[in-house]
Every structure is written in C-alpha cells, then in structure tokens.
Design goal:
Helices cover 49% and strands 14% of the residues. With 208 residues, it is of the alpha+beta class. It folds into 2 domains: 76 residues; 125 residues, no CATH class. It has a 3-stranded antiparallel β-sheet with strand order 3-4-5. Strand 3 and strand 4 form a beta hairpin. The longest helix is centred in the N-terminal third of the chain and has 58 residues. The mean pLDDT is 76.
Amino acid sequence: MNAEIHNQEIRFEIVNWQDDPELIKREAEGNLRSIRQQTGNVIREVEAYNASLERSITENVRTRKQELLKQANLLEQLGVPFKGKGEVPETFAIPAPRRKPVISKPVASIEPYAPEPALDGETYRHILKLCEGTGTEIERHPAIYTGKDEETLRDHFIMVLSPHFDSVTGETFNREGKTDILIRHEGKNVFVAECKFWRGSKQKREHD
C-alpha cells in the first residue's frame, strides 16, 4: 500500500483491475485497518517515551550537577584568585579607594560544600613582589629608616599592601600566637607573613 498525507488527510490509491466493487471495498478496508493498527503502535510508543522523560531528565540533571561540583572542587583546590587593583604603583603611593576583591563562589550543590578561600599563584607572587619593592625602597633611603623599630617598618609594608587588598592587618592575634602581616577573607587567613630584622645569612642558618 502506498499512502500519503495531504492537508491533514491520509490518501491511498486502489487500482481497479477487475471492475469488482466488493473487491475494491475489501482492499480499502484492509488498508484502513493497517493504518489504524500502525497509528495505535505509534501512539503507544510515544506515550511510553513521554512517560520515561521525567526520569531521564532527572537523572541527566543529577549527573550534570555532580560534574559541576567535581569541577568546582578542583578549581577551589587550585586556589581562588584575589583581583588586585591594576593602577596602584608597586612602591609608596597615596592609597587608592578601597575595593573588595572578587571572590568566585561555589555552585549550588546537593551536598554540603564549604570551600576554603586561597590565593592563586599569580596573586601570591604579586604580594611578594610588592614586599620586595618596599624593602628595596627602604634600602635606598637608609637615613629615613635607620633606628626605626620592627613595628614601624612593618607598618610601611602594610601601607603598600592595603591599597591592593582588603583586610590587611598588622600584629593580629592568630590562633595561639601573633603575626606581623595578615590578609584575610571572610574570616579565613589567605596570607601570613612575619617581619624579622635581617642580620645576615649566618644568623638565619642558625635559627633555621
């Protein structure tokens, strides 16, 4: 049987070979039964597929969420970067307006998830570069800094770091002891530094 759909109608042709109206009717009825049967099969398959959609979609969403959570955990372990202020000079300068660093938040999860903030390698090296530049400036102007105590010299480092990062403090109680320079985010330590007088590599080796 060859059939086609035209203007929402199913059409098929019957060739009149014998001029027998009963034979034509029987062939037409057989074609209609076949069409109804195939239509019923299609309807049952579509209903079965629709019934499975909710279960399939739920499983796909759950799998996708687990993949995103795994990626978020990996990125968190690599470190959450602090975004510094690009126009702040690396030596002494008038502090620029303070701006909070942008911290990436973890994606929603079906499981409890409380990641620890961490500096990325680039930001860590930037902090060290700022501290190194500050120390170089102090060496270039010994007359200004000679005789200054450790706290005063430390404050110069804090003055340079503060325009670049929020939550920079000095001589902060940190657990059981104290730290000279501390950068925190949401109550968590992300950078800790101790200030010591340099009295030569020999003395450093003795204390190591």
